[in-house]
Write a structure and sequence with these properties.
By secondary structure, the protein is of the alpha/beta class. 33% of the residues lie in helices and 17% in strands. The protein has ten helices and 14 strands. It has a ten-stranded mixed β-sheet, with helices on both faces. It has a four-stranded parallel β-sheet with strand order 11-14-12-13. Helix 7 links the parallel strand 9 and strand 10. The longest helix has 17 residues. Bound molecules: threonylcarbamoyladenylate (TXA) and magnesium ion. Magnesium ion binds next to loops.
Length: 326
């Protein structure tokens, strides 16, 4: 439970240029006063994040979008009306006063109106925009609980507001409206199909490694244990093969059942994409902490509602095999 006193204290810390970790409906954020370059720089130090990675500005409602961008196009108004507050980040041409450290020196800025009640209370008490990336060390899995934030960032944060487990569980959908055509930069709970319906226009999918969104590096969201995605039909065979080689195996399966008597760390994942996403990062942390030789993950189906989960799992796999990416 977050009391009004906690909110007042956290807002005071933001005003004084400090760092506040707070829950959003997607993942926990590591927040600082977005109008203060010095405050935002502390985020980068705490996360060990390269300086050219832009951060999202969180505001209390869509009317505050105008404080951060040059103009609010009709497309942004439509999306804001339909999907804010919620797990959607919109990229637009930035206003002149936005600190370079927020935008990574780019001429665009990312803005989001989160729906989590604690995030809303904090934004309203603070009044301004809160710059906040996910509250994890750079390249690691986003934190979806207050305990995970403390584990990741420890004393680097002045206060952690505990709003329980994040509802969505994976980061917001990012749509770029700064160009001539809307482009999806990061898939999330709000699907491309949904954006296209609201906009009544096609949304391009941009290559994930495009330099526009450096935080979407191929190897982001990585556990320390090598993580491998395996198709359902090969899953049991792969588990058996690794066990034969005396490997310690951790498994995250959806449809495949745990083999009888096998000495494996086994987690049965939810069948549907929404619940799967909700538990994904906490589950991968648990499997990572089991200290096995490998984490095998049953590949999710190719359907549209699994796009965001598949994206995060693919990055986790890439990053776990090439930790220098993180
Ligand atoms: O759900 C979320 O979006 C969470 C919560 C805390 O709001 N935040 C989050 O922030 O995931 P972060 O920093 O971990 O990821 C933000 C992504 C990064 O990939 C960053 O490169 C991209 O947004 N980004 C930010 N500003 C951008 C800009 N102006 N142009 C392109 N990409 C941008
Ligand atoms: Mg992040």
């Amino acid at each position: 439970m977050v009391s009004d006193r906690d909110i007042e204290r956290a807002a005071g810390i933001l005003k004084a240029g400090g760092l506040v970790a707070f829950p959003t409906e997607t993942v926990y954020g590591l927040g600082a006063d977005a109008s203060s370059a010095d405050a935002v720089r502390k985020i980068f130090a705490a996360k060990n994040r390269p300086a050219d990675h832009p951060v999202i500005v969180h505001v209390a409602d869509a009317s505050q979008l105008a404080d951060w961008v040059i103009t609010v196009p009709e497309s942004a108004k439509k999306l804001g009306r339909a999907l804010w507050p919620g797990p959607l980040t919109i990229i637009l041409q930035r206003a002149a006063g936005v600190p370079d450290v927020v935008t990574g020196g780019q001429d665009t800025v990312a803005v989001r109106v989160p729906s989590h009640p604690v995030a809303q209370r904090l934004l309203r008490a603070f009044g301004g925009g809160i710059a906040a990336p996910s509250a994890n060390r750079f390249g690691r899995i986003s934190a979806t609980t207050a305990a995970h934030v403390r584990k990741e960032l420890g004393d680097a944060v002045d206060i952690v507001l505990d709003g329980g487990a994040a509802d969505v569980g994976i980061e917001s959908t990012i749509v770029d409206l700064s160009g001539t055509q809307p482009a999806l930069l990061r898939p999330g709970a709000i699907t491309r199909e949904r954006l296209e319906t609201v906009l009544d226009a096609a949304v391009l999918t941009v290559s994930h490694n495009a330099p526009r969104a450096p935080g979407t590096l191929a190897g982001h969201y990585a556990p320390q244990t090598p993580l491998v995605l395996i198709e359902a039909e090969d899953f049991e065979r792969q588990v058996a093969r690794l066990l034969e080689q005396q490997k310690q195996v951790a498994a995250l399966a959806r449809r495949i059942h745990r083999p009888a008597d096998a000495d494996v760390v086994w987690i049965a994942a939810p069948r549907d994409a929404e619940h799967y996403a909700h538990e994904l990062y906490a589950t991968v942390r648990t499997l990572d902490e089991a200290g096995c030789d490998v984490i095998l993950v049953e590949a999710p189906p190719p359907a549209a509602e699994w796009t965001a989960v598949r994206d995060r799992l693919t990055r986790a796999a890439t990053g776990s095999l090439a930790p220098e990416n993180g």
